[in-house]
Recover the amino acids of this structure.
């Protein structure tokens, strides 16, 4: 499903989000969608940077304006954000955001994959690349999977390899223009950014939301 077709479903945006794992909105503000998403975190502006001018911990610090790999946000966190909301602030000849909803075969491989997860302080944990989300009251899995993937900080020790995931083609694409909002299920989908030409402008506002 492309970003354009997701936009056509924007009147029932929450239904579209639950069905496809993302939705693209041209006629909503962040304030309008926020109450349906849960607890918000702080917002940040994302702009392409040369790797030498970026935070070494960030994706830009590793890849600069080259292509970003498939990843989920907050992969090193014990509780990554559920929803990733992106709003286009300034766009000029900028690349899209690509999305990957793993097919059943890949999801099965991710379930068997153990990651060596290293946080900013150098602390190491071993975590699954995909695991069931617990129900709030019972603590048992509810059938919904949570992905964890970031080649910089989450290195597979067994199971699927980084190259195998990198080779997967997008299952969805968000084309950007100013004012457009994309909501992505960060537990279900991976995302990435193609290379950014040096003459293009791409400023996105990012806000995370956690389930209550």
């Amino acid at each position: 499903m492309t970003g354009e077709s997701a936009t056509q479903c924007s009147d029932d945006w929450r239904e579209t989000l639950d069905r496809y794992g993302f939705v693209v909105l041209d006629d909503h503000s962040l304030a309008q969608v926020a109450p349906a998403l849960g607890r918000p975190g702080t917002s940040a502006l994302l702009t392409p940077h040369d790797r030498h001018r970026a935070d070494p911990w960030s994706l830009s610090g590793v890849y600069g304006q080259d292509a970003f790999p498939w990843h989920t946000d907050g992969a090193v966190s014990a509780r990554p954000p559920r929803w990733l909301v992106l709003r286009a602030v300034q766009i000029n000849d900028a690349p899209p955001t690509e999305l990957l909803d793993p097919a059943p075969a890949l999801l099965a491989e991710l379930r068997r994959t153990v990651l060596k997860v290293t946080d900013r302080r150098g602390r190491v944990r071993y975590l699954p690349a995909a695991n069931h989300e617990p129900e709030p009251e019972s603590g048992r899995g509810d059938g919904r999977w949570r992905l964890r993937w970031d080649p910089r900080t989450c290195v597979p020790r067994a199971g699927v390899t980084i190259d195998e995931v990198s080779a997967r083609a997008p299952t969805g694409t968000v084309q950007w223009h100013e004012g457009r909002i994309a909501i992505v299920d960060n537990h279900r989908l991976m995302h990435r950014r193609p290379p950014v030409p040096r003459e293009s402008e791409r400023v996105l506002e990012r806000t995370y939301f956690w389930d209550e």
Q: What stands out?
A: The radius of gyration is 17 Å. Helices lie at 3-7, 13-20, 30-33, 59-63, 104-111, 162-166.
